[in-house]
Every structure is written in C-alpha cells, then in structure tokens.
C-alpha cells in the first residue's frame, strides 16, 4: 500500500520531466541549435559521462561544504529561535534585525567575507549559515508561538517550570514547523555553497561552473546545474525522511478529528 502511494506521488512529475527532455531533444535537432548556445540532453549526458571522475571530486567538495554549513546554520537558527522565544525582550528588540539581515543579497556579501576572512573554508561556512539560519529561526519561532494554550495553562497550574514546559510541550509541539524550516534551509544550503564557491574556491561545483563559463562550455554548465538540482533534491528528501521518523503525531491531526466529530 505504501509503495502504491509512493508510486502515485512520483509518476506524474517523472512523466512531466521525461516529456520535457524529449521536447528539448527534438527542438535542438529540429531547429539545429548550436551546441554552445543550447546543448541537447543527449550532449549533456555524454559530457557528464566523459567527465565523471573530475565531476565526482568537485561534487564531494561541494557536498562537504553543504553538510557542514547546513549543520551550523540549522544550529544557529534553532539557538536564535529558542533564545528569542524564551526571552520576550530579545524577540521584540532583535527580531526586526533578523528581517533586516535578509535584505542584503548573499552574492553581494560574499566578496566582503572573502576580504575579511580570506579564501579558506570560514567565509564559505558563514555564507551558508547566513542563508540557512533564517528559515529555521522563523519556522521555529512560529511553531513555538502556536503551542496549545490549553495544555500550556494546564502545565502551569500543575506546577511545571518554564523550562519543563519548553522541553516537554513547546518544542515537541513546534517540531513539524521546525522541520519545515529545516527542509527549506536544506535546499538553500546548496545555493549558498555554490555562491560561496563562485566568489573564491579552487574546487567544487561552483568553481567548476565558473571555469566552464569562461570557456563557453554550455554543456558542462548544464551538467553542473543538474548536479546542483540533484543535491538539492537529496537534501530535501533526507530531511523529509527524518521528519517522517520524528513526527509521528501532528497537532493538526487532532484538530481534524475534532472537526469530524
């Protein structure tokens, strides 16, 4: 039954992608489009197979950067959310600054970080952290604010401390929202890593794209784009699986059952 549901959710987008690739391939042949302008899917696949060894090395370098930056960004986002929720004064004073921090384009900030911290791994991690922490922090704060007030008041009347309420009620109740933010951050981490490598790196998919852009190797750029998409989907799927394992009961299910009753 689960396999049937999984297949029913997969086949419509899979068919759409296959049709898109067929139309793309046919268009490049029919209109005789130059390879350096728009390569066909067959050309892209051929180039990916030819350069598989070098691409694998660049992909591993980017993946290591993604995982490290994503872990740090998620931890910073949760720490910010918990701190602002636990201390209302901090939330009222610092939350507008969080919003303001997202108005600075990452691509504009990355060169400054390279100037300040050099071309090592630190500025790249900072870029990914800045990209990842905000969706996690906002989603976590929203989930914590939506805690069941009846249970909250009941635990207070039962003599539970603020810390106990936070650990045993607010955090578990906010877990679905937190993981929604983490899924967004997971896909953003790939973008942040590529942007960081654009600015300054000696390996990675972003570095590989910049090299191919200088050579007008459009087919290799498309290969890099395909790898970026695959990494984003893999990160999203990983967090989605984690969500299914952690969230076995959602508060909205109870509300739905009440409505049906």
Automatic annotation (TrEMBL):
Residue ranges annotated for the ABC transmembrane type-1 domain, each copy included: 59-240
UniProt xrefs under CDD domains: TM_PBP2 (cd06261)
Membrane topology qualifier: Multi-pass membrane protein
Presence of keyword Disulfide bond: no
Transmembrane segments: 12-31, 65-87, 94-119, 125-145, 221-242
InterPro entries named among the record's database cross-references: MetI-like (IPR000515), MetI-like_sf (IPR035906)
SUPFAM superfamilies, sorted: MetI-like
Keyword tags: Cell membrane, Membrane, Transmembrane, Transmembrane helix, Transport
UniProt subcellular location: Cell membrane
Main location: membrane
Coiled-coil residue spans: none
Family to which this protein belongs: Belongs to the binding-protein-dependent transport system permease family.
Record's protein name: ABC transporter permease
Organism this protein belongs to: Paenibacillus haidiansis
Lineage start: Bacteria, Bacillati, Bacillota, Bacilli, Bacillales
